[in-house]
Amino acid sequence: MRRNLILLCLIAGAVCTAQKPVLEYLDIQKKYSDFPENDARALPYIKKSIFQGKKNNNYRHLVYAYEDAAYYSKNRAQKLLYSDSIIQAAKKTGNAGIISKAFLAKGIVYYFNYRKYDKALDQYIFAAAFADKTDDDYLIFKIKYNIGVVKSYLGYHEEAVKLFRECSRFFDSEMKNSSHPTFLYNNTRGYLNSIHQMIISYRQSMQDRKADSLITLTNLFPMEKEFLQENAYFLKEKGISAFRHKAFHRSIESLLASAEMLKEKEEDAYLTAVYYYLARNYHHLKKTSQTEVYLSKVDSLFRKNQTVLPETRAAYELLLKRTDYRQNAGQATYYIQQLLKADSILNRDLPYLSARIHREYDTKAIWAERDKLLEAKKWRDHFMVFAVLIISGMAGFLTLSKKREKQVLRHYNNLQRKLNDQTQNTISAPEKNAENRKSWYEPEIAEEILEKLK
How far does Cα 58 stand from its chain's mean position? Predict the structure, then answer.
């Protein structure tokens, strides 16, 4: 059902463009969409879908069908083969987003099913290059998350936490703004997995208080059926935290519950950590047989997958500590050889991973950040020039206005003085010329006027 929801969302665009072969894919896909992951019953239907996609030369259809084949195949070698087919079909679509997702899918198979970090990193870098040509933020942050996982494995915990924090913020924001159930599901998973990886990085860098605060945060999320895998991760971390706080029985309870869920998902790497801490708990409780059982499980997983985690090395060191060299020289020699093999894998992988991730991802990210800063600086410089011009214009306008104001005031004062002078002259003139005014008229006329005025 989960796979069906995701594909319905992906296919919506193709349906809108009336691609009949994609509709044919969907018609076949609903016959097996309710099957769980790794259920081989879906494969006969998927093979029919692949045949139909090839017949119609519809590569988008083939991408979806091959993705289904990888998802429902139980065998990890088959998953890898189908991942190659996804990439081949995706390239023929010419769509950068589809090609990026195809490389990411193969990288996840290498990481999740093989724990081959070097090969996973190669695919992530290809995926990042194509994702840069899209505006798909979800895809970009999903790749960033997986790069963070590699950094954490390398021990670059500070850099890894920075990436996981960015991812958690993005997924949290998208989760709060998501109304469609598929988008809500995807972003919730992205958020919870980012928190899980941050807890691992904090724990491995001995920042237990920060790890515990994030574990507490996960209690806010009810772990529904859709998120049982994430619940297993957090039970694992709660168990490890309880062990470090010497709450051994509570630790065992959480770890055993986590182990059951992880076995169902065949999560061997995280099972290694769970088995190691179960052994440590029983060791502290002086329960020898249970300790040996879970340390042997760690050894069995390492022989099966050749996956090296901090807990792998620590398990062999504990086995050597518990082994009497004089009585079990052969067993002690075997543990030493396994420990040296684990070290040789780390010595082989870590330099390559470290150099590659810094050369091809970090350097590119730094240049991308530089370009953003230069672009921002360019716009900032344009704004500053514009602002200077505006301010200069305003300053000039204010100066001119002030000058004009002074001129007007000066003219006003001059005019006021003139008016005052004229008024004074007007008042004093009649007094001075009162006697002379009579001489303006002849005496006879003056007498006649005065006579009329009576």
Answer: 32
